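Box 3.1 A note on notation
Throughout this textbook, protein chains are presented in two layers. The first layer is the amino acid sequence; the second is a token string describing backbone geometry. Keep the layers aligned when reading.
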Amino acid sequence: MSLPPTAPNEAADLVERLDRLLPQTQCGQCGYAGCRPYAEAMARGQAGVDHCPPGGDAGARALAHLLGVPARPYDRTRGSHKPAPVAVIVEADCIGCTKCIQACPVDAIIGAAKHMHTVIEPLCTGCELCVPACPVDCIVLEPARPAA
């Protein structure tokens, strides 16, 4: 996929618009370090619109529409599309190791060393990166509650 060259402001605007279409999970399933690097790669014509499982087919179509390229379904080999869950820390089991805090790309987990941690639910994107980081398996994923 090769896009026509754009002026710096147009390129920055395109990256911003692409980034806004992405789900902001920062999960890395697309092969990039987060949603913005993926948006930058798409804007440069170095990545396809089908790399984001959290965005699903609808997200891939929206990205294709914005870029003016043919739509295609998201690449299922990268992961499955499912509603974004939210991480919950089982407080009684948390040992306060801070590994989940370090793994969270959006700073949705708070706590101090050797003290129980908690997830700030509205900030959690459901990327699941905290789950394998926990040495005592005290993080569970639950369906996100509807916004009030």
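The radius of gyration is 17 Å. Helices lie at 8-21, 35-43, 56-67, 99-103, 130-133.
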